[in-house]
Amino acid sequence: MTRFGLLMSAALLSASGVFAGTVHPTNVDFVDGAIEVSLSGMPGDPENGAVLMNKGAGNCIACHAVSQLSDLPFHGEIGPMLDGVADRWSEAELRGIIADAKQMFDGTMMPSFYKTEGFIRLGDAYTGDAHAGDVQPLLTAQEVEDVVAYLKTLTDE
Amino acid sequence: MRTKTSMRLGVGLAAASVFAMAACADPDDDQLVVNEEIEMITEAAAPDHMERVRTIYSGWRFRSDETQAVQMDDFDNPAMIWVDAAAEVWETADGTEGNSCASCHESVDSMEGVRAVYPKWNEAAGEVRTLEMQVNDCRENQMGAEPWKYDGGDMTNMVALISSVSRGLPVNVAIDGPAQSTWEQGKDLYYTRFGQLELSCANCHEDSYGLHIRSDHLSQGQINGFPTYRLKNTKLNSVHSRFKGCIRDTRAHTFAPGSPEFVALELYVASRGNGLSVEGPSVRN
User: Fold this and answer.
1) Chain-chain contact of A62 with B7 (C-beta, under 8 angstroms)
2) Alpha-carbon distance B253 to B247, whole Å?
3) Residue B77 in 3-state DSSP?
4) Which residue of B has its CA nearest to A58?
5) Nearest CB to B192: which of A104, A120, A129?
6) Which of A15, A40, A152 shows the shortest CA–CA distance to A97?
7) Of B142, B149, B233, B243, whose Cβ has the fewest other Cβ atoms within 10 Å?
């Protein structure tokens, strides 16, 4: 889909009021790998997004380098550098890449952060034991929005 | 959609300009000679069955100079303490039959070459056996002794002792004939994307070796150096403990040490190292 098409469908979605409330991981609408609407219905907090880049289930810099976060040690080299990433991808595309990168990049090594189904031998976090009960995505809807908000600050200017 | 190869090159270049550590991304060119005597093959042409890798490297080649040095002399290699402990056990009778390993196998030097061909098909038992399985078979059926815990200290020490007398010999496990179906099962496991992070062994150790994931410099995940003494946990680590750790880190439900799945995976991973020297017990971080 073209950028123009994405904008058009964003306009249509917002007109139909989809912004209200949290979108469950199993109900996410991907359009060419992108997600138009905020998953939490709220704007993201870039400061918390920066924290998630380094810590917890996000841990993006395990695989990506970000010059702006160079005070943190050990940036990974598995994925591309994220400097200027907001110039390369729209907000909707960034949201889609974080929620489930496999929709945008077929077979990518990047984990799907907003997904609860289809895992093989799902474990109970890092214990090595089997998982029991409801599955939580790696990032909550609001955390995905926070990371999107942080990535949007990464422009080359 | 972007292709893997161009991505990998692009990443290397982009990272090199910002982080000095990217300069040491690929395996280094160091040569491993242990005790100024045992010349190790740490780089070899990949075996024919590997479709996506041209050259295989020992994990030693991805470690820092400091870590590498610890393996180069048995006086520095802390693993040798446990090798010595196992050498005593080798001579010590245990079980109802009053036998020690030495009663039947004489000197441990009789085990030269054994590590290099395990896991191996055992005709009488009709199964692929790891070295651990064979040792426990001898304990139970030749000695009348209790089996050791699969990845416990006694077992891992004994495997280190048996490996040590094959150091320098090329790994050469058989993957055809009756072992083939087990090998195929291991290959399937190697390419399965486990856990909530949906990562396969291949994602890290085939597609990404030479790159850093956080602070870790990814190797090809070879097992020619096992058991390994790890600076991180200051003990000897068995192959299956390592497999367990790597699967656990994908937020997956792991398999148990000694399970049929890990036996199959071990045969497959060992076969990816056919041609590298047996290094066990090696030193890693």
Assistant:
1) no
2) 8
3) coil
4) B197
5) A120
6) A152
7) B233
**Range of lowest pLDDT (A9-23, A103-117, B87-101, B163-177):** A9-23
State the pLDDT at residue B25: 62
Mean pLDDT for the stretch of residues A55-59? 80
> What is the C-alpha separation between B57 and B46, in angstroms, rounded?
9
| pLDDT digit string, tens, across residues B62-104 | 999 999 999 999 999 999 999 999 999 999 999 999 999 999 9
Task: List Cα–Cα distances, B255 to A61, B194, B226, in angstroms.
Answer: 29, 11, 19
DSSP per residue over B177-236, as a string? GGGHHHHHHHHHHHT--BTTTTB-HHHHHTSSTTSEETTEE------TT-SEEETTTTEE
Q: Which residues of chain B carry a pLDDT beneath 70?
A: 1-25
Please give the model's pTM, rounded to 2 decimal places: 0.92
Tell me which residue has tokens 């064979």. B134
Question: Nearest C-alpha of chain A: how many angstroms from B144?
Answer: 34
Q: What local confidence, expressed as pLDDT, does residue B255 receive? A: 98
* CA-only gyration radius of chain B, Å: 19
Q: In this complex, which of A62, A104, A112 lies closest to B198 when CB atoms are compared?
A: A112
Q: With contact defined as beta carbons under 8 Å apart, do B32 and B65 qualify? A: no
- Do B194 and A62 count as a contact with CB atoms less than 8 A apart? no
Q: CB of B159 within 8 A of CB of B101?
A: no
At A55 the pLDDT is 79
Interface of B with A in 8-47 (CB under 8 A): 10-12, 14-15, 18-19, 22, 25
Taking an 8 Å cut-off on Cβ atoms, the answer to whether A126 and B251 are in contact is: yes
CA–CA distance, A140 with A138 (Å, rounded to integer): 7
Is position B104 annotated as part of the catalytic site? no
pLDDT of residue A4: 47
Query: Which chain A residues are Cβ-neighbours of B253 within 8 angstroms?
Result: 121-124, 128-131
